[in-house]
Each structure stands twice: as C-alpha cells, then as structure tokens.
C-alpha cells in the first residue's frame, strides 16, 4: 500500500494540472457518485491536500473529493486528449481545458461537504500527519511519551494511524532500524537520547523518502550501491524486504518478523531487544 510520501508525491502531480484550474468535465464511475458530476463541473480546484494515505481534492463550492488508494489505486495525469495505456478500471476523471487527472482502481472514493469531512470515520481518527511540514520532532517526542501511547510496543504503534498518519510497513521498519529500536520496546522503555532519535528519524526518513521517490538510505550510500551495480529496488532500503541479506552497517543477517499481522524487518545487532549500556547513533 502506498504510504504518506507516495501519496504526497501523487498529490503534487495532480496539483500541477488541477490546482487553480476550472474542471470542465467530471466523470465519476462508482455507484452513487454520478449525481455529483454536475455540481463539480465548471468549478475551480482550490487545493490538493493529503491526510495520511488519503487525498483531498477541494473545489471552490466547498465540496471535496476524498480518495484512498488502498492497495491498487493510482492517479495518472495526462495532457488532453491522451489517456494512459492500462488495464486498470477507471474510477474518476477530472478534465481541465488542457489536462486530465484520472484515478484508476481505487474503490474508496467519496464527495464530501465540510461537515462530512470533519465527521469522516477515517479522517476524524487520524493522528498528526508525518508529511505535515509543521510537525516538529519535539512535539512528536511528547506524543511518544503520552499515556495513550507510551506503553505500546513500537512495532505495533508505528502502524496505528491514530498515532501517526501516513506511516506504513516499509517506513515502520526503516524508522525503527535507523533509530536502533527493537519493535518489542515501548516508548516507556526508551531513554531520552533514544526518544530524541526515534522522534527525529521518524520525520527525517519519511521526508527523505518523499524527496527521493521512495529511497530511505542516505544519498551517499545510494550512490555507492548504484555504482557497484545494485538496481533501484535493491538499494532503496536499509532493512525492509532484505531478510537474509547483510546489514549495510554491521554486516549481520537481517531478519523478518511478523508484528501487527504484517512483516517487519530488522537487524538483530543494530536493534537489540534490550538497551545497550552506551547507545550509539546510526548514520541514517
């Protein structure tokens, strides 16, 4: 499933062709949505925002197109009258005079007014957005220490969208690794330095993934691996999907666990289940 960085990048693409433009033609192909086509046609898109893994396309009449890609949804942007070559099912079409924004395969699409947006069962329970430019590490550290979250294992906590929206499976593994935190450890178990690293790395790794198109390792390491022949898929991550391979930092074998019903990847040497006597820092 796309995570916060991927949804933000998709929103950026859609914003480039829709934001500030009049939508001349709207087609909505899911049952119950066609009745909104006339209300959106001829309206100007005022913003494209993201909340966790959801995208919000707002129009100047106060209506918002809510979409959640889930596993298979994908936005395409094209210059009119071109259409993408794909076997996916077209769900929503937004056409300006010059471009099209096309949503394929997603099944979680709604048209909402402001009240419905505020009361939406998914959006209303989300925690802070990891891709929010205003999210500060110091504020997130306080959230880690709050009574609501401090006693939960980090491995489970970092999949809870009510804790932090936009974190998914690959970001969870990568953030815990660069922070040197075993998924069984709770925020309550971490010392001050560990909490600072976990809070800072959560924001740092998510934003690095956004800037780089899904790469969480440092740019210098990515260049080094590319020069030695590693493919893009092979050099994206520190640990995610690399079970049985050597850790980039210590050379030990990366392991795979099941935490929260989903695969989690870690280095048992860099992420011990009990704290080290002297915590080091990862070059992340």
Assign the CATH class of the largest domain: Mainly Alpha
Using the coordinates shown, work out and report the CATH topology of the largest domain: Helicase, Ruva Protein, domain 3
> How many individual helices?
8
Radius of gyration (CA) equals 21 Å
Mean pLDDT rating: 95
The string of secondary-structure elements, in order, is: HEHEEEEEEEHHHHHHEE
CATH architecture of the largest domain: Orthogonal Bundle
Report the portion of residues in β strands: 15-25%
The backbone outline, from C-alpha atoms, is globular
Fraction of residues in helix: 25-40%
Largest sheet data: 4 strands, antiparallel
SS-derived structural category: alpha+beta
Spatial strand arrangement across the major sheet: 1-6-7-5
Total E-strand runs = 10
Number of domains: 2
The end-to-end span amounts to 24 Å
